[in-house]
Amino acid sequence: MSTSPSKQMHLGAFLMSVGHHAAGWRFPGVDPANTMNFAYYKKLAQTAEAGKFDLIFFADRLAISDRFDNRFDTTVRYLAQARPEPISLLGALGAITDKIGLAATASTTYNEPFFLARAFATLDHLTGGRIAWNIVTSTNDGEALNFSKQEHLEHETRYGRAHEFLDVVTKLWDSWEDDALVLDKENGIYADPSKVHYLHHKGDWFGVRGPLNVTRPPQGHPVLIQAGSSDTGRDFAAQTAEVIFSSQPQIAAAREFRNDIHARVLKYGRTPDSIKILPGVMPIIGATQAEAEEKLRHLEDLVHPLGGLALLSDSMNHDLSVYSLDEPLPELENIRGNQSRYKLVQEMSKRDNLTLRQLGKRFGGSRSHRVVAGTAEQIADNFAEWFGSGACDGFNLMPAYLPESLTDFVEQVVPILQERGLFRREYEGDTLRQHLGLARPQNRFT
Ligand SMILES: Cc1cc2nc3c(=O)[nH]c(=O)nc-3n(C[C@H](O)[C@H](O)[C@H](O)COP(=O)(O)O)c2cc1C
């Protein structure tokens, strides 16, 4: 089923705080005060751009994690929890970069479509077409409580809302046709009203008249990213997404996932090359394999098990503080949070016979994403194998501790991938769609 992968892989840099690893902030050389420091983010963005990455990505949560023991004490004490609001951050980073794509998460559960359509359209204009939106439905009750709700919406309900949300946003982006601006100074005609459209949308969740008060974005639509992996999440992605972020630790499962998405994409009348699947991976680079493994061991030693369990409680939307740390993760029904991640974690827990304490340390590491420790050459080999076997269209790199993990990758691994013809040496286009080889969407009103 899988189409042969395009010749060159795509690379995203998923930048989180001062590192993805729960203990990244404690690692030697990391300045944990950087989480709110613009000079630091500027350096990261410019490093990724020097490495010709397709995009950098900032995730988002709308609450401090506090599902563990229903308090934030564990997370605030042990984890680097503070984070900048990512849409604002993209605006600042757009001004100091020229080519690299800029992606941010925004929730369809706790926003209004008009607001997000306008924000992302504006950013797309300001950056000359380099913006992407990671569409999420959010994860847990802590987020609901910050938005005047008592409980997070049920899984199916929030995907239902996401469908309608996205429909409204894309219509708003289309509400000005590309040639609506006339700009005829002589005759005093600014724009052609026949090319600007009301939506008159009235649905289950939203009533939006439109049109937007921002002209159509340079990319037509900013690039749409999705990361849900449940059956409903996959279907949503297959209908709407252009990039999929996934958590796929095993190559065979990653290939199956890609085949499954391609089958669903075809069912919805799209072609498999209209969607790029980028599984997450945390590379730990050493001068020798032994050095890389030592770094990983050191990082794992530094994770507080309760910190890792607090992150897992948050992801599952389920308080794990009530179970014994010396027993395995119990079999749980009706997980209301991230269902696909719970499945992965339960599989890992059984496979490796982990106690909850051990699982906390392990989950804190990469939050069940793939970790590869080795030399730059070995990491390049591993990426080549995954890419060449049709397991993915590229990778969403999750640097463990920053800025060093990103700099090492750009200086040591990227040149090897370029040498092998697997990754670009220069940007060929100007927009993120061009980097990713994605078509500019038709305007539905034209
Ligand atoms: C790489 C990656 C990044 C994600 N980023 C976010 C995020 O920023 N905010 C969020 O609420 N969820 C995020 N998620 C979670 C997904 O949006 C989704 O809720 C999750 O995969 C569970 O979906 P499912 O229940 O359909 O499996 C991310 C997932 C992945 C794999």
Textual characterization of the structure:
Belongs to the NtaA/SnaA/DszA monooxygenase family. This is LLM class flavin-dependent oxidoreductase. Keywords: Flavoprotein, FMN, Monooxygenase, Oxidoreductase. There is one protein chain. This protein is α/β, with parallel strands linked by helices. It has a single domain (10-290, 369-436), classed as TIM Barrel. The protein contains 15 helices and 13 strands. The protein has helices at residues 38-50, 73-78, 86-94, 113-126, 141-144, 155-174, 231-240, 251-267, 289-302, 305-316, 339-351, 356-366, 376-388, 404-419, 432-436, and strands spanning 10-14, 55-58, 101-107, 131-136, 181-184, 189-191, 201-202, 207-208, 223-226, 243-246, 276-285, 370-374, 394-397. The strands form three sheets. The chain has an eight-stranded parallel beta barrel, surrounded by seven helices. It has a two-stranded antiparallel sheet with strand order 5-6. Strand 5 (181-184) and strand 6 (189-191) form a beta hairpin. The radius of gyration is 22 Å and the shape is globular. Bound molecules: flavin mononucleotide. Flavin mononucleotide binds next to strand 4, helix 7, strand 10 and helix 11.
